[in-house]
Amino acid sequence: MQTLLKEGAELHLAGRLADAERCYRQALEIDDSSAVAHNNLAFLLMQRREFAEAEQEYRRAIELSPAYATAYTNLGQAYLLMQRWDEAEEYLTRATELDADAFHAYESLAKLAMVYGDSNRAVSYWEEANRIRPVRENLVNLAHCLVQQRRLDEARDVLIRAADSDDEDARLHALFGIIAFAQYDFGSAIRHFKRALGIEPENTETRHNLAMAYLKTGQSEEAVMELRRILLLMPDHVEARNNLAVIELAAGEPDSALEHFNLILEQAPDNTKALYYKGVVLLQQGKTEAARALLEKITRTTPNEYQSQAAELLSTLV
Fold first, then answer.
1. What is the CA 245 to chain-centroid distance, rounded?
2. pLDDT per residue over 136-158, tens digit each?
3. How far apart are CA 266 and CA 94, in angstroms?
4. Which residues contact 165 (CB under 8 A, 6 or more apart)?
5. pTM for the whole thing?
6. I want to staple 118 with a disulfide (CB 3.0 to 4.6 A). Which of 113, 171, 240, 243 is the partner?
7. Distance between CA atoms of residues 32 and 25, nearest Å
8. Residues 158 and 178: beta-carbon distance below 8 Å
9. What are the CA-CA distances from residue 287 to residues 259, 293, 294 (Å)?
10. In the chain, where do the E strands start and end?
């Protein structure tokens, strides 16, 4: 029995799934009460995406050994793959109750909290996972959640810990850049965003952040270059196109700006930034009624940052 389980585990690690399955099933023919054999077989079945049978095998392992934390973790992770979020949380939480050092359970609970957008719980779970095993990727995930909570100094301290093990991580430098930007250290932000892009050049979010940092330091030509690169990579990037259009409008290129605003509004008809600035261009062109229609549309939408500006412009129209 134990020989079959050991052989199966070795074959499993070697990627010989069919041979590993044969060992696990032979072990269960000898002793169907082996929770480990049921768990290992279930794990193999999950790798094959045979979800229904895997679930049955995990539940059998838990039935046989109710304190088997690993089986609870594995079933919780299986439910994550099946997007059965509530069940995933239930079994992963139970795993942490059974084993305070259930690293993979805490890690999965943190990822689930991020799916829910619950940064408070995500931080708590990432901290537990990093207490047990401070993996660089999870330190960066913790820092990301801390940045979302505006706990910038704590986030930077976590990133410094992560950088000790590997400084060549694009997400790490992107987060350093975001923290520096939020603290008005735009020079450091630019250096970190450029470092991140040196590792991951097609990351449009980081490239957009770099463009905004360039704008903050008066480097509009560099900002325009980065925004245009984004649109080459992702023509539907609304924020980049909006910002490029606003820069062009300020530079005295209303026709080019208007073309960008029209493209945005084809894609997102209620984009208030594009509506507002298109209205500004139309007013400059003497098309008062067309501009009025756009500005009035902004005032009728849900509260947004351009409502007061639109209302103010409307008040000046005859």
1. 27
2. 999 999 999 999 999 999 999 99
3. 49
4. 136
5. 0.82
6. 113
7. 9
8. no
9. 16, 10, 11
10. none
